[in-house]
Amino acid sequence: MDYVAQYLGMAPVAVYEVASFYTMYNLKPTGRHKLTICTCLPCGLQGSLAAPITCARSWASASTRLRPTGASR
């Protein structure tokens, strides 16, 4: 982030503000896959609020097939 700030000629705090505001930017390493579920009203009316429950059930049934790191066997 500091390199980006220097390259753009901006204060590092400005780059960190943008990076911490938007969920598509990560300040630290993440896993191989990142799942984001929209919970705004229009998405919720289309059923997105049930998605986390469905995912949790699916992951619970798959947990016996996953390694502790989350990678498939």
Structure notes:
The protein is mainly alpha-helical and 73 residues long. It contains four helices and no strands. Helix 1 (2-8) crosses helix 2 (12-21).
How does the SSE layout of this entry go?
Blueprint: H1 2-8, H2 12-21, H3 41-45, H4 51-62
Helix pairs in contact: 1-2
Provide tags for this entry:
73 residues; mainly alpha; 47% helix
Brief sketch in words of this structure:
With 73 residues, the protein is mostly helical.
Poorly predicted parts? none
SS content category? mainly alpha
Cα radius of gyration in angstroms: 18 Å
Sketch the major β-sheet.
Answer: none
How do the SSEs run, as a string of H and E?
Answer: HHHH
Q: Name the beta content range.
A: under 5%
What's the total number of strands?
A: 0
DSSP summary: helix tally: 4
Tell me the overall shape. Answer: elongated
